[in-house]
Design goal:
This protein is an alpha/beta fold. 36% of the residues lie in helices and 15% in strands. It has helices spanning 15-19, 22-31, 46-50, 68-75, 89-97, 110-119, 130-136, 156-165, 191-203, 217-224, 240-249, 259-266, 317-320, 324-339; strands at residues 6-10, 36-42, 55-61, 81-84, 102-105, 175-179, 207-210, 232-233, 252-256, 271-274, 291-294. A 6-stranded parallel sheet has the order 8-7-6-9-10-11, with helices on both faces. A 5-stranded parallel sheet has the order 3-2-1-4-5. The chain starts with 5 loop residues before the first strand and ends with a helix.
Length: 340
């Protein structure tokens, strides 16, 4: 039986994709407990994976620097196998340059994705999470699905630095997190409706906090205008590890289809997700988590894989048809279920 001693897993980006590799890392470690797992990821996402218990070493890839030195260092590691979970020209180039006895990669099923997005022809046999598609890459190694979801581990120092930024927040009072940002405009629910949700929970004694990256500051400010009782807007103020730690402390996260929903799932925080142009068939929904996806059945969905700058039909029904009352009711039901 093949017994690898050291492997390299490649997944450069982005937040959600990196988080969704963690079930495979755990399953690999269960199958080969003595094996060392190294992980190659873009520098800005490294802190997500550095604290994972199955990972031996994280290699950081900086897109602004030459790959020559990094590849030379990786070539010296004498890997038994390379697992490419990125499946891009760049990841294939790294895999080609680094010697290993076995090299495997996952299939993003781009043709099925194209048929679904372009022609609404669903060739997926079932809604299969991306984590399970990643697992297919190592199926021949006898790696078994353990039935568990994603997992992340907050760093102790992140808790200390977060406490400094949370001054004025009483952790004994429930925290409701809203993440209204997204990389593309069509993946963002209406700011005024996020505001309506935030106002509802604020009036009922919860601490409502807005989170997001630097690029989400504008939309968070817009949402904040509709929440007179808003406790904090921390968009652009937290590192990934600090965000992870805060999400773990929250009662619930309400978010668009973005990476933070996967973080919430990985730390077992209930999450309500609003899907607009994307759908579950694409595989990026909270994996084995306390979650509810709110979406509307429309003939024009899905219209894109990552979202777009504007609605192709100019009506934006996928998001406009989601009402604040529906999100509030769903969130309250999920909070009640989680507390039982």
């Amino acid at each position: 039986m093949w017994q690898p001693k050291k492997i390299l897993v490649i997944r450069f980006s982005a937040i959600g994709d990196v988080v969704l590799t963690t079930p495979v890392l755990r399953m690999l470690k269960i199958c080969y407990p003595e094996m060392k797992i190294d992980f190659l990821v873009k520098s800005q996402y490294a802190e997500l994976i550095e604290t994972h218990s199955a990972v031996h070493r994280v290699w950081k890839y900086d897109t602004q620097e030459s790959t020559g030195d990094l590849i030379r260092q990786l070539r010296d590691q004498q890997y038994d196998a390379i697992v490419d979970l990125q499946f891009s020209i760049r990841s294939r180039w790294f895999a080609f340059r680094i010697p290993a006895e076995r090299k495997v990669r996952f299939s993003p099923e781009r043709f099925k994705r194209l048929l679904l997005v372009r022609f609404r022809w669903d060739r997926y046999k079932k809604d299969e999470a991306v984590s399970l598609r990643y697992l297919q890459a190592v199926k021949s190694w006898d790696v078994k699905d353990d039935g568990k979801g994603a997992e992340l581990f907050p760093a102790l120092e992140a808790g200390s630095s977060l406490n400094e930024k949370l001054k004025g927040i009483n952790l004994s009072i429930p925290i409701i997190l809203l993440a209204p940002g997204a990389g593309r405009a069509t993946k963002r629910w209406l700011p005024e409706r996020f505001g309506e949700v935030g106002h509802h929970f604020s009036e009922r004694g919860n601490q409502v906090i807005l989170i997001g990256g630097e690029q989400d500051r504008a939309i968070c400010r817009e949402v904040g205008k509709h929440i007179p009782e808003l406790h904090s807007d921390l968009s652009g103020a937290l590192s990934l590890q600090e965000s992870l730690t805060l999400i773990e402390k929250a009662r619930i996260l309400i978010t668009n289809d973005t990476g933070v929903m996967h973080i919430a799932a990985a730390v077992q925080t209930p999450v309500v997700v609003l899907f607009g142009p994307t759908t579950r068939q694409l595989g990026f929904y909270p994996f084995r988590a306390q979650s509810t996806v709110i979406e509307k059945e429309l003939d024009c969905r899905p219209c894109s894989y990552h979202g777009t700058a504007r609605c192709p039909k100019d009506h934006f029904h996928c998001m406009r048809h989601i009402q604040a009352s529906e999100v509030i009711e769903t969130a309250e039901q999920l909070i009640k279920k989680a507390s039982e």
